Amino acid sequence: MSHEGIRIVSEETARRESAAETKLPQSAVTPAKVRVKKTEGTGVEIDWKDGHQSVWTFPWLRDACPCATCNEEREHADRQPGEPKPKPQGLLQMYQAPARPLEATPVGKYAIRFKWTDGHESGIYSWDYLRRMCQCEVCLNAAQPTKLSS
């Protein structure tokens, strides 16, 4: 019996993929205001047309890059979007500066693209992707499975 095409995913990945299949209202994926805090080096803030606000740090965004190469690497390593790569173990840990964008460029009316200090620039962060990856407490709690009381 062949098992080709079978993919084992974590519970979090399954939840995110299921949520990705649900169409969000247009107001939930349309930014009213986007602030890329490049000078401060802190991150991105988006006020959505439905009144919600999302905030991400630059390191989180770099670790959540939606490009095919980064997605494949995360799946292989069983990491979630935004989860950093484990640091190599060794006697002398080399300092690595946090990820920061050199440029942030709009992509049509549907996304933003970053050129990162590590040279990576192939990820296109759609508004839909960013809204689904919101890191606010309300969204993170909504993504958690509900526990049945006994």
Automatic annotation (TrEMBL):
Q: Where is the Gamma-butyrobetaine hydroxylase-like N-terminal domain?
A: 38-131
Q: Which domain of life is it from?
A: Bacteria
- Which residue stretches belong to region Disordered? 1-33, 72-92
Keyword Metal-binding in record: yes
Among InterPro entries, the record links this protein to: GBBH-like_N, GBBH-like_N_sf
User: Is Metal-binding one of the keywords UniProt gives this record?
Assistant: yes
Keywords of the record, alphabetical order, are: Iron, Metal-binding
Q: Name one GO molecular function term.
A: metal ion binding
Which residue ranges have biased composition labelled Basic and acidic residues? Answer: 1-20, 72-86
Under which name does UniProt file this protein? DUF971 family protein
